[in-house]
Amino acid sequence: MPWGGLFLSCGCPSQEQQKSCLAAVGGFNYDVPFHGASKPNSTTNLTHEAAEASDKVLVKHGFFVNHSHVLVGSGAATFDHAKLRFFPRRWANVEPDTPVKAGTRFCICYNELIPWVLLPLQIAYVTDGNVNSSGYGKGETTRPSAGEERFSVQLDEEDQV
Asked: What does each C-alpha distance from 62 to 40, 81, 89, 161 come to in angstroms?
């Protein structure tokens, strides 16, 4: 299954293969000071200039910083549905009963032409700041990539998700 730092499978990986993959990796593969760096509390209460300075520190240490926002739709029903779709479904598989809580380790499995790739990850933090916002940050546990990614969904004052 492991090949050059990648975890591969000829077919859609079973739960046992995913458990084996997770057992073969340790915790986060990036330095402790950067655990939770994508958490919104680290920049929400800062001025725009302070947030940019924080991003520059991450870039200086080799991280790529991207702030992408996508309009999903509008209304409370769309917001509630989006919260249930925290894990990708169209291009990848994640065990459906994976809990969204800090410390949870899981695999995202996706098909790359012939082999399936297993990407072991760990949830670094969960944010449920208020009724109109929810999210989590997941961190890499294997090479070749390292770092953290935040997924969040918000219902804004204009009723847009």
From this structure: 20, 35, 30, 31
